[in-house]
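In response to the reviewer comment on reproducibility (Comment 2.3), we provide here a single inverse folding case reported in full, input and output, so that an independent group could reproduce the run without further information from us. The structure tokens appear first.
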């Protein structure tokens, strides 16, 4: 008996699995059939719809390797590695661990632990093999059934099984194709036509609508794809059609359900979505609705202790929590930035600052970065009591967002320190050792939407606080969620585990003891899309050298601008919405040598004249220069003088078009120069 065979026969011992492929009849060794370094999907020859999969895309040693419906993900891809003795090992593309065996088929780190296989190709059958262990007659056979999750077995006697090894292109990191696939699949499954220019996510309603609308804004804000903004517009129209101007009311009909009469945080979430829509489109209706409803809920919720009441009918009347304060602070900052009057701006920034200070005093642990959930004010003592110290991705995310926005406004290092503490706590307490969020592992209910909130504000933190080293954190979560999608391309909010083909949670039960379904759960299923949309795919562009060319497609902020409108200009972004449309770029580093000129590759693809204002730190910030846009649809590099610029700034290119201008201004790249 060979050494490998002896090791395999010993219970509980794990050894490396190398595929031996032999003919169904007489085995004909074909060492050149498999190619070392190539990647394969391994499926039972009799059921090509299944493939070997690391269960739940787990990174753990000893994680089971099972048969699962092929969902075309890296956790179902295996790279063949040829060993010095002519055998092969197989390494999973996603986890980086090797196909191994003990009491069952598993993965393990290190090629020295991998089972070794000697390939024998089936005579006359392309890509068909028997997976036989080197040095023994043992071979890999399928499970007793091929249901998802069934484990293949090692067989010592009897008829060997045939396996299809289909070569594929390895996908080793999260990319734009995956991001777009995840978003498209979610929309295809959940988006419903509701009438002329109206749509809904599933049946629509509840606070989840606001969060899913924000996810569409995230997708537009990070890609410039107009289709996402169109979806936002139509779903918001459906909300407005059913709820109207006043969001502090109850709507409970067959068409729509909204509980703004009770939950102040629900209203604040729609305020944020509407205020963000103003910043991204410039349409005043969104600003008007956001401000009107913020003012109303702030007046209704403000209590004598200077904090906000969470709900008007639910919970204790003296109860307050982070669930209302974080969103209210973020909403106030967005509204402040939208206003033209400096006095009005400061009023709303002041509201955000004051609410933040109260939350920081009573619901934030400065030493740990924990954002606590809630407490109740005691009427007699005017002191807080009955604390719930639960820490959630929702509250960590919103207080992080508020800290970032207030730091940008006031420059107080306290906000920056708070943000750093919140991020560190979130990574330490709410994620596993690989950085994957481990909480809110649920497929429906309020908690299923929390992780999407966190992803949004992590992106802002990484970009605006210049932490490119953390960019992979969001990407890891998006990549894990992608690997755990089902064959429809949808991932539930419980993205630590594989999303089932029957849309049923394997473990989570409702109050009646029935396993929960995520078939009609657009809110929970949107969190993976939020992770995808907020992933930073090019970390080299987080910090930008002012004196090197920066492509327009690497924007960080935009209004009325769209990418991909012209297939011949893949990198160009079109400013389309007339006066005030802009592209903004964070972290443009000018150093200490003043920039004196800017070069910009641009075209005025329309009729009438247009200019571009160069502004610093905000779309209406300091005017640093004016660029004349050349007429015609051909991109031209033009040069313009700018007032001396040093240090690091956000740089905005703002369109100022003549009254008769029609068409687009296409921006391709820009770079500054300094007179030495």
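Designed residues, in position order:
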């Amino acid at each position: 008996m060979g050494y490998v065979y002896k090791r395999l026969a010993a219970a509980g011992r794990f050894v490396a699995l190398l595929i031996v492929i032999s003919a169904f009849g007489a085995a004909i060794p074909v060492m050149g059939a498999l190619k070392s370094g190539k990647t394969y999907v391994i499926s039972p020859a009799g059921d090509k719809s299944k493939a070997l999969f690391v269960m739940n895309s787990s990174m753990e040693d000893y994680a089971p390797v099972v048969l699962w419906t092929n969902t075309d993900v890296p956790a179902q891809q295996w790279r063949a590695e040829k060993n010095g003795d002519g055998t092969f090992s197989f390494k999973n593309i996603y986890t980086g661990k090797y196909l191994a065996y003990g009491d069952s088929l598993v993965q393990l780190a290190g090629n020295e632990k991998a089972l070794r296989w000697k390939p024998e190709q089936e005579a006359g059958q392309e890509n068909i093999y028997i997976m036989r262990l080197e040095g023994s007659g043992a071979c890999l056979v399928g499970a007793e059934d091929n249901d998802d999750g069934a484990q293949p077995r090692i067989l010592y006697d009897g008829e060997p099984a045939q396996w299809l090894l289909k070569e594929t292109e390895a996908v080793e990191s999260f990319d734009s194709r995956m991001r777009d696939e995840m978003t498209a699949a979610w929309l295809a499954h959940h988006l419903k036509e509701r009438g002329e220019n109206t749509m809904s996510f599933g049946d629509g309603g509840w606070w989840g609508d606001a969060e899913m609308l924000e996810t569409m804004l995230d997708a537009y804000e990070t890609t410039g794809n107009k289709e996402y903004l169109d979806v936002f517009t139509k779903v918001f129209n459906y909300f407005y059609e059913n709820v109207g101007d006043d969001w502090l009311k109850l709507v409970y009909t067959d068409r729509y359900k909204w509980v703004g009469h009770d939950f102040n945080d629900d209203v604040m979430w729609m305020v944020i979505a509407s205020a963000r829509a103003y910043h991204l489109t410039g349409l005043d209706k969104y600003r008007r609705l956001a401000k009107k409803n913020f003012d109303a809920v702030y007046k209704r919720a403000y209590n004598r202790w200077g904090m906000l009441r969470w709900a008007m009918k639910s919970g204790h009347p003296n109860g307050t929590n982070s669930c209302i304060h974080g969103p209210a602070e973020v909403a106030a900052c967005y509204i402040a930035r939208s206003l033209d009057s400096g006095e009005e701006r400061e009023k709303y920034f002041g509201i955000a600052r004051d609410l933040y200070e109260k939350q920081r005093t009573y619901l934030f642990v400065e030493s740990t970065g924990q954002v606590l959930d809630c407490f109740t004010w005691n009427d007699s003592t005017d002191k807080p009591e009955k604390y719930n110290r639960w820490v959630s991705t929702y509250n960590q995310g919103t207080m992080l967002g508020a800290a970032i926005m207030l730091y940008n406004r006031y420059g107080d290092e306290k906000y920056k320190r708070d943000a750093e503490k919140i991020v560190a706590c979130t990574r330490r307490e709410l994620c596993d050792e690989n950085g994957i969020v481990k909480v809110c592992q649920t497929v429906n209910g309020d908690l299923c939407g929390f992780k999407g909130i966190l992803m949004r504000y992590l992106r802002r933190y990484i970009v605006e606080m210049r932490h490119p080293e953390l960019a992979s954190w969001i990407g890891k979560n998006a990549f894990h969620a992608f690997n755990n999608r089902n064959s429809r391309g949808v991932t539930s909010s419980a993205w630590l585990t594989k999303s089932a083909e029957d849309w049923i949670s394997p473990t989570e039960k409702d109050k009646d003891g029935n396993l929960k379904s995520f078939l009609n759960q657009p809110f929970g299923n949107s969190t993976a899309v939020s992770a995808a949309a907020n992933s930073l795919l090019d970390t080299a562009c987080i910090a930008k050298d002012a004196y090197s060319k920066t492509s327009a497609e690497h924007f960080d902020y935009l209004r009325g601008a769209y990418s991909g409108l012209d297939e011949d200009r893949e990198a160009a972004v079109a400013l389309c919405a007339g006066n005030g449309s802009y592209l903004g770029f964070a972290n443009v580093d000018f150093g200490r040598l003043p920039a004196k000129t800017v070069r910009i590759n641009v075209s005025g693809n329309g009729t009438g004249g247009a200019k571009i204002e160069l502004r610093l730190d905000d779309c209406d910030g300091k005017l640093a220069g004016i660029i004349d846009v050349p007429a015609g649809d051909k991109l031209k590099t033009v040069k313009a003088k700018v007032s001396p610029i040093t240090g690091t700034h956000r740089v905005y290119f703002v369109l100022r078009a003549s009254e008769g201008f029609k068409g687009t201004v296409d921006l391709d790249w820009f770079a500054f120069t300094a007179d030495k």
